[in-house]
Amino acid sequence: MISAPALAPVGSLSTLRAQFTNASGYLAACTAGLPTAGTRAAVSADLSGAPDLAEYCRAIEASREHFATLVGVEPDRIAIGSQTSVQVSMLAAALPHGAEVLVPEHEFSSLVLPFVHAGRGIRVREAPLHRLADAVSPDTAVVAFSLVQSGSGEVADLAAIVAAADRAGARTVCDATQAVGWMPVDAARVDALLCHTYKWLCCPRGVAFLALREDYARTLSPVQAGWYAGDDPWASCYGGDAELAGCARRFDVSPAWQAFVGAEPALAAFAAVDMHDVYAHAVGLADDFRTRLGLAVPERSSAIVTWPDASGQDLMALTAAGIVASGRNGRARVAFHVFNDEDDVERAARALDR
Length: 354
Fold this sequence. Notes:
The protein is of the alpha/beta class. 35% of the residues lie in helices and 14% in strands. The chain contains 12 helices and 10 strands.
């Protein structure tokens, strides 16, 4: 777990849970989150009226601030996007010829493929996640890894990875898509932190964020610069002489307006609670389920539970019982989030005769 700076919570776990209805049996936040009541209301209101550009801009900047709160950095360190792979591509474009990128085995492809196909002789090397820190070498330029693995639910040993990268002079690029929303996260501990918000933060798809250390940001070129990357976006709509923002906003892409309208109330709801409470709730349910299945509780516990299911038999049993789960890389996968409870643990365990 990444420990975030202490923030005074203004909401409660019960308040956040009240944002969700009809969540029984939904164990797939690791695939896509459920919409909050605030998201439903905001999107409905937007679609029922005329486009409101001022409100769109307000929702975008408020979303940036909420996400900054969630990951413990200032909003000017945050760039907006729509897909993490596009943001990773910008990081890959800044690497020198022949650079080495170290990634975990079985890493989610959106984090790996931009480096694989960057050209210029860039080399991508793999190592098991539990040995990633040991695999960092003096030749490593970037260590790119997910804080929580999509396929297995395994939580990376962030402290060891960051320490090894620091010793080698390597940058750390951390995809926190499967982490932000159920565990405390501090983006200041890595050079770049990416997050798509449609999973654990329960936003519409199309809202992603990139948090950058200032010294790392200075090494990057805004190769995706568009009108919204300008210091004054509404003065950057024409021509090529616009002045770009002097902070991470220079890496913004043109925002998906309706997605941000729906994202802002969801991000506000998550940013208002103490994430340690969400962590305790989600991991408590996940560990109870592990116990029911006879699975070991990992050293760094996770809200995602996976187990071997090459035939897909367990996933079919869960589905037949009306439980929404998933299968990845030969494993059955369930996720426990703020909207789940002990009834979900019991229902899933019974479906598997455990």
